[in-house]
Amino acid sequence: MAHVLITGGSRGIGAAAVRTFARAGYEVSFLYEKSAEAAAALAAETGARALRCDAADTEAVAAAVASLPPVDVLVNNAGISHVGLISQISPEEWDRLFAVNVKSIYNTVRAVLPAMLQRQAGAVVNVSSMWGQAGASCEAAYSATKGAVIALTQALARELGPSGIRVNAVSPGVIDTDMNAHLSEEDKAVLAEDTPLGRIGIPEEVAEAILFLAQASFITGQNLPVNGGYL
Ligand code: NAD
Questions:
Q1: What is the C-alpha to C-alpha distance for residues 207 and 135, in angstroms, rounded to an integer?
Q2: Residue 231: inside a domain
């Protein structure tokens, strides 16, 4: 049974990915930061293994991965956002966004890589964002981190392809999760109207795209938009 490790698995897109991979027959482990109750409930529901771990903490990630069986598929989903003018983001907030959204990928890839290299096989799927492709006003830091995720995906695909390891990304559009809890119903209606498919997405639709890339044996270095046609 292939083993998938998903970061930020306790809710939203990560939780949908935990359920989707479990249904597809994978052994599932996930990292979460805060929501212990939700993580325990999801673990009980799906049979997944839940580990409390800050994905931005290099040593904590290394220790968590060392406690797991070898990872066949790594899904880097953990992420945070910040909405505000560039002048309103503090240096600490800027650094934390890059630590959680970008450095976490360095942390997890380094931790799972030795076993993947040994087997000359593996797949990584990184969760970027359409704002990493286009840039969003009042989300400069977030957009910059997600652009970095796409470049990191492309670089790692070239670096690891010769070792049989594929690296791809998904770039969701507006998805109905807690990350968008700050949006009013009116805001959501406007975003839906701007989307050719006429609605915002649901976490399961992103999870299906992640599973597809995890299994797409001749696709690497790609960024798959899951945005209802918004871009
Ligand atoms: P969410 O806030 O509902 O979930 C984020 C998850 O990441 C949570 O499980 C949280 O515990 C986890 N997390 C946050 N910081 C962490 C840390 N330091 N260590 C470990 N886990 C951590 O958000 P979501 O919408 O499900 O977002 C998931 C991913 O999708 C993020 O990378 C986000 O940037 C991306 N994304 C979301 C949308 C959207 O519209 N919701 C759009 C594009 C991209």
A1: 23
A2: no
Separation of CA 177 and ligand 1 centre (Å): 9
pLDDT of 156 reads: 99
| CA trace torsion 98, 169, 57, 60 (10° rounding) | 180
Question: pLDDT by residue (tens digit) across 201-214?
Answer: 999 999 999 999 99
Residue 86 phi/psi, 5-degree rounding, is -55, -35
Look up the pTM and report it.
Answer: 0.98
CA of 76 to the centre of ligand 1 (A): 10
Domain count, the chain: 1
pLDDT band at 138 (very low <50, low <70, confident <90, very high): very high
- 155: containing domain: 3-226
Assign residue 69 the CATH number of its domain. Answer: 3.40.50.720
Atom of ligand 1 nearest to the CA of 100: 18
